[in-house]
Amino acid sequence: MQKSIVTYTLILAAFLTIAVFASSTSKGGTSASAQKLSGNNSTTTTHHDLPQVIKSVNLNKDFLFAGEEFPMDNFDVRERLDRELSRNTYWHSNTLLNIKKGNKYFPLMKKILKEYDVPEDFIYLSVAESDLSNAVSPAGARGFWQFMKATGKQYGLEIGSDVDERFHLEKATVAFCKYIKGNKKRFGNWLLAAAAYNMGGTRLSKEIKAQKGKSYFDLNLNQETSRYVFRLVALKEIMTNPQDFGFYIEEADLYKPIDNYYEVEVKEPVNNWGTFAQKYNISYRMLKVYNPWLVKTSLANKNRNSYVVKIPKGS
User: Fold this and answer.
1) Using alpha carbons only, how large is the chain's radius of gyration in Å?
2) How many CA atoms lie within 13 A of 251 on its CB side?
3) Confidence of residue 147 (pLDDT cuts 50, 70, 90)
């Protein structure tokens, strides 16, 4: 009986050994003999190819915004600019779309800035504020330039239940020019003018007085404003020279300016803009694309104001 038990134990041990070996061979992939048959004598290794190149941006050059130079011999300035250049360089989809949209909107904006003697570099402020879109912030700021209601009205924009000219690119850009030139007159240079646009002139004045600072780079401001001007120059660098930062965009991929339209003057109330659109053989959607400042489906126009409505051609 005892001998039978020993024999049984030995058979069971042999069986378990074979089972374990077979299992490890299966999990490990191709056996050594199979590798020899296939001509592969090396151990199989899994690779994950990552087809991207991550490099630091080049800081060894001069950086200007609105003609004003960044002191790149200051390590703090270098590191703050490095952060914004790196962030926007590797924020791929957002930066790519902004480059495409820039071709659509910048020509008109540059024309207006030139007319009001505002440096062309300020087109990038609209990128920082809204990503070149009629954005609405949680605080209630609206449009490309993110005007609050009171400020928009102060600079001549009509803002009501039917019409909101913060969404009117031409008129809002004119309002921006007036606003930023006021900041320049108050603070003496364009970099502080931009900082004031972000945090408010009253708050900036208090910080300058408390800190005895003379330039934007001397001031220790809140995180958003501390990064703001660096972000503007970073956007300028990337969007001006996209290939230097790894963005290769064919001209055909750029968004085209919306300039194929004619204008219709409206002096009366409009009961329904959809019906109005049908009259001109366009859709309500396209009417709103060309005139985003029309914020309702109707126009009361109790004061019989005159409005210029863009009608796309060939739609």
Assistant:
1) 32
2) 0
3) very high
pLDDT at 79: 97
Cα torsion through 37, 40, 44, 45, rounded to 10? -160
Q: Which two tokens stand for residue 45?
A: 């290794």
Q: What is the mean pLDDT of the segment spanning 276-296?
A: 97
- Read off the tokens for 284: 């309500």
**Cα–Cα distance, 199 to 53 (Å, whole number):** 36
CA angle 168, 272, 263 (to 5 degrees): 45
| Sequence-separated (6 or more) residues with CB below 8 Å from residue 59 | 72, 78, 81, 82, 85
Task: Read off the pLDDT of each residue in 238-244 and give the average, rounded to a whole number.
Answer: 95
Q: Are 43 and 30 in contact (CB under 8 A)?
A: no
Using CB atoms within 10 A of its CB, is residue 72 exposed (0-12), middle (13-18) or buried (19+)?
middle
Query: Is 173 in contact with 158 (CB distance < 8 Å)?
Result: no
- Report whether pLDDT(17) > 80: no
Angle at 219 between CA 123 and CA 86, to 5 degrees: 50
Question: What are the residues whose beta carbons fall under 8 Å from the beta carbon of 304, sequence distance 6 or more?
Answer: 267, 268
Amino acid at 272: N
